[in-house]
Amino acid sequence: MTTDASRRGLLTAAAAAPAAAIVANAAQAEEAALRIAFVFEAVVTLGPAEEIGQTPYGRRVRIPITGGAFSGPRIRGLVVPGAMDWQLVRPDGYTMIEASYMLRADDGALIHIQNKGLLGKGYVRTTPVFEAPNGPHAWLNEAVFTGTIGAPPEGSGPAVRIMIHKIL
Fold it and tell me: Radius of gyration of the chain from Cα atoms?
């Protein structure tokens, strides 16, 4: 005859087994290097920076996004003008960036991108999140991405080069 206490013990043991497997798999995954795949390169043109001023969190700056173009193996198109890159220069010298803008793919699809990141002391990384309509670009909604920001090609004017990769 099984008592309530032994039933609870069996249930607890049954529930703990999958949790232990998850923890073991997470530890193995942590040791594995992340793999990435190139998605696209964008050259985003910028307007003059506007100083908002000092806030309790740091110095706030906004930079207009005036256009640009992007191209990769599965997608290409233009950066829609009229968006903004908000930056917060923190007291520790790092800058938090938050850009929200639209991409217009060559097939006419509009894709929203929210690109947040951190830069400073030689470190520049972003975590773009896409909102693509259902259809040929829906794959952008189904993965985690990372990006880097660098100098634009010579002759691009005020701009940045953004490289986007999918984390596999």
Answer: 22
CA 25, 13, 11, 8 torsion-angle sign: negative
What's the confidence (pLDDT) of residue 156?
87
CA distances from 70 to 39, 78, 103, 146 (A): 10, 6, 8, 16
78: left (phi over 0), alpha (psi -120 to 50) or beta: beta
Answer yes or no: are the C-beta atoms of 158 and 44 closer than 8 Å: no
> Using a CB cutoff of 8 Å and minimum separation of 24, what contacts does 103-109 make?
103/42, 103/70, 103/77, 103/78, 103/79, 104/77, 104/78, 104/79, 104/80, 105/75, 105/76, 105/77, 105/137, 106/75, 106/76, 106/77, 107/136, 109/133, 109/135, 109/136, 109/137
pLDDT in tens, 114-161: 999 999 999 999 999 999 999 999 999 999 999 999 999 999 899 999
Q: What's the pLDDT at 33?
A: 86
Whether the predicted pLDDT of 98 surpasses 60 = yes
Q: What confidence score (pLDDT) does residue 32 get?
A: 75
pLDDT for residue 47 is more than 70 = yes
